[in-house]
Amino acid sequence: METKLPKAPLVRSLLRWMLASVNSWVHFIPLFVVCPFSRRLGGTLYQSWVRKQFQIFCISVLLHDENHGKPLQEPKLYVWLNQSNIVEGAASAFLLAPCFMVINLEYALMPLAGMARMFLGDIVIIRQWTNQAKRGIEPHQHRRCTKH
Fold it and tell me: Is 97 helix (H, G, I), strand (E, B) or coil?
């Protein structure tokens, strides 16, 4: 479902960014309120925000499920080793099962999107400091991507 916008590229772009800003605040204010009490509800709000942002910017995502929709037998650990952009990080929110991610401090401090991931319980590290990054991850090794 594509949002109907004017034909002028600049106007269309400005309207998309204004819609995206309103959508962000509509989702993130409740997300910041509920996260301390319900990670599941916070995750649902985050996924709803991502879905709506993708609609606003006309981004489509396709998931190739080699498991054919069958539930996973055990919790899984996903490792994403590239320097991803915001779209990839957001897409993972509804392509993967709800999970904890390891995020760097710079991303965690990013207004709204990074802060939301931090509120959802993601592990924050300073990747430039190897010892700190290892110490930050070690206590959380028991966490896995699972249903809430």
Answer: coil
> Interior CA angle at 72 toward 97 and 119, to 5°?
20
List, in sequence order, every residue forming a beta bridge with 102; answer none if it has no partner. 123
Q: Which amino acid is at 144?
A: R
Beta-ladder partners of 103: 124
Find the helix or strand (DSSP H, E) in which 28 lies.
helix 9-34
Phi, psi of 70 (to 5 degrees): -75, 145
Strands (E), 9-110: 102-104
- At which residue do the structure tokens 């959380």 appear? 140
pLDDT, tens only, 93-115:
767 766 777 778 888 888 888 88
11: Cα within 13 Å, side-chain hemisphere: 5
> Each residue of 116-137: pLDDT tens digit?
888 888 888 887 777 777 777 7
Cα gap 129→32, rounded to integer Å: 29
Question: Exposure pattern of 131-143 as b/e (b: 16+ CB <10 Å)?
Answer: eebeebeeeeeeb
Domain extent listing, the chain = 9-63+74-140
pLDDT (0 to 100) of residue 11: 85
